[in-house]
Prior knowledge:
GO molecular function, one term: hydrolase activity
Helix content: 40-55%
Shape: globular
GO cellular component, one term: ribosome
Number of domains: 2
Radius of gyration: 21 Å
Structural class: alpha/beta
Low-confidence stretches: none
CATH topology of the largest domain: Rossmann fold
Largest sheet: 7 strands, parallel
Mean pLDDT: 89
Strand order of the largest sheet: 3-4-2-5-6-1-7
CATH class of the largest domain: Alpha Beta
Protein name: DEAD/DEAH box helicase
Number of helices: 15
Keywords: ATP-binding, Helicase, Hydrolase, Nucleotide-binding
CATH architecture of the largest domain: 3-Layer(aba) Sandwich
Strand content: 15-25%
Amino acid sequence: MEDDMSTFRELGVPQQLAAALEKRGIKEPTPIQEAFIPAAGGGENLVGAAPTGTGKTFAYLLPSLARIDMNLRAVQLLILAPTHELAVQIADAARTLVQAVELPLTVQALIGGANIKRQIEGLKKKPQIVTGSAARILELSRMGKLRLSDVQILVLDEFDRLLGKQLADDVRAVIRLLPQNRQALLLSATAPTAAIRAADGLFAPRIIRVEDAQTTCENYYHRAAFRDKIKAVQKLTRRLPIRRGIVFVGRGFDAERAVEKLRYEGIRAVSLLGQERRDRRRAALDAIRAGRAELLIATDLAARGLDIEDVDYVVNVDLPEDVRTYRHRAGRTARAGKAGAVVTLADDKEMERLKALAARMELELKTLPAE
């Protein structure tokens, strides 16, 4: 370890948690963890903005777990997420840490679309950590099944979406149920001006921003007529060494038909679409993570914030609408210093928009090498 690198212990992470991380091969904090953990441990209201895949979940979980009163059987850490899948992913990460150090803590995920009676049974265990969607948390609170008066730390993961038009009313309603002296930790891969303004009005947080680190992500384009794009995905899957890829499609794209075509050609594809049942979405994530599928066909809404390890290729079937969308999609690959590539399919009309997008990002966009 280099002399100028902090250790988790130097950041104030308890020895038990630091040892648990080391067993998982996590020995050095990432830049966002190095900046965020000490400030969060000190009780400040914070915004953390850092690229996807840089360890933001542990940046808030580690200092938060250290501050929970083990003897108080009440919700003390409340984590809100914009999608059900992200809420479950965070709950899994929290359970992994808790179990690794044998802490007497209970974690409960509360999301819409899941069996509410089962969630009510889970709340009878008096969890200290709750992750979930604002709407379900409000519902359970109004039913008298969930008390939030002991919450000490509120986390808004992907806060730019949580404070956007669709979710802000429910999120604000949850905030009104919490103690006034609770801490607020807000994190996102991007922190646009409107989201910062909303956060400032609610919490007056200090902003910690970590710029994009050097990655080994290559950015390519491939010309394909719109009607031929799924055929192009099929050919690219055979041509490129794709072990685990995510294919982004727009909401207007017939993704289910695309999956059918790919499967017909012998490609192991699954879909992650907002309109699908929660159990189908979970099964798709399990398949891609376990290697039973090689392609995940997804919309931006469904795939936002998900942590899928070792994604080596991202394919844009539909052109990203803006810089922010491109970065979120690209952030699914080349995570934690690993190599990855983004391939954008574009017809003749889309090429000009793609070049303009690349220019705004100062991105070197290359054509795929010849077969």
